[in-house]
Amino acid sequence: MKTLTDVYRLHQTVMKGFTAYEDVERVLFRVEPEVRSESVVVLVQSAVAPDWRFAEENNGIAGARVKEFSPSFRKGDLFRFRLRANPTVTRNGKRYGLIRDDDLLDWLRQKEEKLGVRLTSATVIDEGYISGRKRSEKGNHRLDIKTARFEGVLKVVEPELVGEAFSTGIGPAKAFGCGLLSLART
């Protein structure tokens, strides 16, 4: 499926599920790394329900489901987490993707206080780059986004901050499949 090979095209496809709304605050999504029954799973999280009928009819997407989820967080709660992120540093106004595993983990650890969590364990898988082409009147613009997948266990320190990170995402490139924090109670 061509949509999965171009991150900008995937962004456009996901956003088509929200065309019924004039303004959608934040839509987060992530392509899951596991392939199940030769199918690819794309998780989408938003404050409003999408309408996936267009995708099922036109794009060969099967099994689109909507699930309501209203998490609550308490200080001391433990969660397993998964996060696909765009870990970067900014130098001279330009973002550069981090490459070394130690740098990737440090990037996440530096966010603990702002996210209201303490990482009790974390591993990183460098996923390389995702790419795409954004077409506009000004021409084609190539997108190359460095990604890494973090998994582990976190402890809630500041419940409000965790709730905000959960609903708004973490780090840059949220429109392109990064930043969605998935949590499961341990």
Structure class: alpha+beta
Mean pLDDT across every amino acid position? 89
| Radius of gyration over all CA atoms, rounded | 17 Å
Strand content: 35-45%
Provide the succession of SSEs.
HEEHEEEHHEEHE
Q: Can you count the beta strands?
A: 8
Q: Helix coverage percent of residues? A: 10-25%
Unreliable residue stretches: none
Plain-language structure description:
The structure is a single chain. The chain contains 5 helices and 8 strands. It has helices at 7-16, 53-58, 101-109, 112-115, 159-168; strands at residues 28-36, 39-45, 78-85, 88-91, 94-97, 117-136, 139-156, 181-185. The strands form 3 sheets. It has a 4-stranded antiparallel β-sheet with strand order 6-7-3-8. A two-stranded antiparallel sheet has the order 1-2. The longest helix has 10 residues, at 7-16. The termini are far apart.
Give a short synopsis of this structure.
With about 190 residues, this protein is α+β, with helices and mostly antiparallel strands.
Question: What's the structural blueprint in terms of helices and strands?
Answer:
Blueprint: H1 7-16, E1 28-36, E2 39-45, H2 53-58, E3 78-85, E4 88-91, E5 94-97, H3 101-109, H4 112-115, E6 117-136, E7 139-156, H5 159-168, E8 181-185
Antiparallel strand pairs: 1-2, 3-7, 3-8, 4-5, 6-7
Question: Which key terms come to mind for this protein?
Answer:
8 strands; 5 helices; alpha+beta; 40% strand; 186 residues
